[in-house]
TrEMBL record:
Protein name: Stage 0 sporulation protein A homolog
Gene3D superfamilies named in the record: 3.40.50.2300, Winged helix-like DNA-binding domain superfamily/Winged helix DNA-binding domain
Domain Response regulatory stretches: 5-119
One Pfam family of this chain: ANTAR
Entry annotated with the keyword Electron transport: no
Organism lineage: Bacteria, Bacillati, Bacillota, Clostridia, Neomoorellales
Gene it is expressed from: pdtaR
Species of origin: Moorella mulderi DSM 14980
Modified residues (4-aspartylphosphate): D55
Length: 202
């Protein structure tokens, strides 16, 4: 299994060095590092790390803007570093993919569990999002199939079971999904309806 690649964004060289030392000693790979927000974003988009450690006091493009763009791009989970804990920080970052908050100077005893938890929870979240997307696609396909089935029942006098079996046979014979067969039926029906309207107008 490939080791996670971690990106570090902090304007403080000693913070970056300390984090790298602790992570490398535990076998993690350092994807890269940046001293400011703009450079961090460019490198993160290129390197596609597994995890981003982001200093809340980042210079240039601020940490919240970096986190917002990372969220939009769906790149990786974030561990946010702060000089002190305050609830306002939690409120301002609630909508971003931040999986842990660590107070500087970061200790190995808090860093390593946070890294493991962030990686594991992000993977679970990604799997759930994929499952939700599949369910949405399945529901959308089912609606299209039901509509096509209704068209066959109305235009050909078929029962619900007969209409479904007809689409199923077409799907198997043509080696295409039933959704594609259903979409073709709907398009043909709409074109036929448009043609009939044109004839009546003439």
């Amino acid at each position: 299994m490939q080791q996670p690649k971690i990106f570090i964004a902090s304007s403080d060289p000693s913070t970056r060095q300390n984090l790298k030392y602790m992570l490398v000693r535990e076998g993690y790979l350092i994807a890269g590092e940046a001293p400011d927000g703009s450079q961090a974003l460019r490198m993160i988009r290129t390197l596609q790390p597994s995890l981003i450690i982001l200093d809340s006091e980042l210079q240039g493009t601020n940490a919240l803007e970096v986190a917002r763009i990372i969220e939009e791009d769906g790149v990786a989970p974030i561990i946010l570093l702060a000089s002190s804990w305050h609830r306002n920080l939690l409120t301002r970052t609630r909508d971003f993919p931040i999986f842990a908050y660590l107070i500087k100077p970061v200790q190995e005893s808090t860093l390593l569990p946070a890294v493991e938890a962030a990686l594991a929870n992000y993977q679970k979240m990604s799997r759930l999002q994929q499952e939700i997307s599949k369910l949405k696609e399945t529901l959308a396909a089912r609606k299209i199939i039901e509509r096509a089935k209704g068209i066959l029942m109305d235009t050909m006098g078929l029962t619900e079971a007969e209409a479904y079996r007809r689409m199923q046979r077409q799907s198997m014979d043509r080696c295409v999904p039933m959704k594609s067969i259903a979409e073709a039926i709907i398009v043909a029906h709409e074109l036929q309806g448009g043609s009939n309207k044109a004839k009546k107008t003439d």
